[in-house]
Amino acid sequence: MTDRDTALAIAGLDKSYGRAQVLNGITLDVAPGERVALLGHNGAGKSTLIKLILGLIRASGGAIRVAGHAPGSPAARAATAYLPEQVAFHRSLTGREQLTMFARLAGEHPKAVAPLLERVGLTEAADRRIGTWSKGMRQRLGLAQALLGRRRVALLDEPTSGLDPISRHDLYAVIDEMAANGTALLIASHALTELEARTDRIAIMAGGRLVADDSLANLARAADLPTRIRLTAREGAADAVQAELGGTRVNGRAVELHCTTGQKMAQLARVSALGDAVRDIEMCPPSLEDLYRYYCAEERR
Amino acid sequence: MIARVLAIAGAEFRIQRRNRWLASATALMTLFALALTFAGSAPTGSLGVDLLTVAVASMTTLAVYLAPFLALMIAFDAVAGEAERGTLGLTLTYPLSRGEMLLGKFAAHLAVLAIAICLGLGAAGLAAWLAGGAGAESARALARLIATAILLGASFLALGYAASALSGSGAGAAGLAVGLWLVLVVLYDLGLLGALVVDGGGGFTRHVFPWLLALNPADAFRLWNVAGSQEVALVSGMAGAGAALPVWAAPLSLLLWPVLAFVLARAAFARVEP
Prior knowledge:
The complex is a heterodimer of chains A (about 300) and B (about 270). Chain A is α/β, with parallel strands linked by helices and about 300 residues long. Chain A has two domains: about 10-220, P-loop containing nucleotide triphosphate hydrolases (Rossmann fold); about 225-285, Alpha-Beta Plaits. In chain A, about 35% of the residues lie in helices and about 25% in strands. Chain A is built from eleven helices and 13 strands. Chain A has a six-stranded mixed beta sheet with strand order 5-6-7-3-8-9, sandwiched between helices. In chain A, strands 11-12-10-13 form a four-stranded antiparallel beta sheet, covered by helices on one side. Chain B is mostly helical. Chain B starts with a helix and ends with a helix. Chain B has helices at about 1-20, 20-40, 45, 50-75, 80-85, 85-90, 100-130, 135-165, 170-200, 205-215, 215-230, 230-235, 240-245, 250-270. Chain B has one domain. The interface of A and B includes residues 57, 75, 77 and 129 of A.
């Protein structure tokens, strides 16, 4: 791939502090318009990776290109939007003043500020000091500054933290809009939730390494986690159901089975053969959390 | 570059105004200057100079302590405080160099200091002129005092940034700033005084001591004001040390200090990892 195809290119990236190796051979590309979720526990190296991409710290080995430029160079910084995890602003400035300062730093006309404040729903609070704002409002101001200018790469660190469900929904819309405009998005998070599941690709970090980098569907297929089937038996029939199908008794009348994706239909046929001994059936495909735990545990083994 | 420096300077000036630093620095300066002007008005008659000359001499002594103090109080938080609050990391991801950021803060802080010094010393000067009269000479001395006090403040602003960048936390930076003030403004002079007593008028006193005085920004400030006006020198009794030096020594020192201290601060800031 050339620099034109990849907005963000990371190859064989190492970072160590003294003898402690924080990042180990990270290779990751993000194309324009692509949304990639970067998952990992606290301390997995996500924040270090983001700081390296921003050029705030220097790598020990490997290479990063941001829109074809070295990280931290003026061109790379002009092309990069960043939403920090704990977004902080000057308490004694108003939202409008703070955003105007960022607009001028980004080379945007201060006129761009009012529509952006409107976009994130802060028009009313814009002329109050940020010190009086709630965490959710500060988070939205953080999002507004990430929308300034025409950025090729956006790094969002835990963007959903501190947001209520409605704001979260606005965030999804903003992320999709940025992607539609051709911005490459890297969204860091310590959990696999609705937001991360909506991305195009999921990269999982554990212990400073990249342990997975694929679409959610492919990751689920590769992990092949069992589907859980829970049957509620007719009164007194639970023993018979368990004798026929195996599995474990959960409480008085329920039986729980686990089966792989391939066995699912066969298992269902056996259940329906039992006739009215089964009153109800509930199928739970592996959850996002199960999948995330699987890949993180993979690394530990 | 100018646009980015101005963006930082504009925001920073607003912050200083909202934090009431502008108001308290100006009030402090005015209060002390007025108090000293009238408390020090006693020797006017015996020396045969106007009240403004005496006021300038007292205010020179005041500014030596107060201008560095105010500058350090404004500056110590500039880097460490922002790093601690988490605002530094985001700002530095913008296409803004660290030098530009520091320059923007410097411009805003210097404006605050200049306003406080102009209003404070100016008000006291005006009061002295109204109360006891002034001549062209003493008006020039006041203008020189105000300009050099701003230069002295600029030196300590930049030193404050260096302290702020070198210490990891706001509290550490505050401690370092107080230490700087003590060493450069108070202890340096005491040390020299001790050396003079030991030397007892020998080679050190005549050849080394005046240069050591000029080397310190606070003493260079004093020397420049004293050397500039015969009458101020007469009142402050500091003419002896200045006479042993070439005329350019103290002004050169005071003009170089802000620049060198800023270069030092920029170098220290380069090592900060937000």
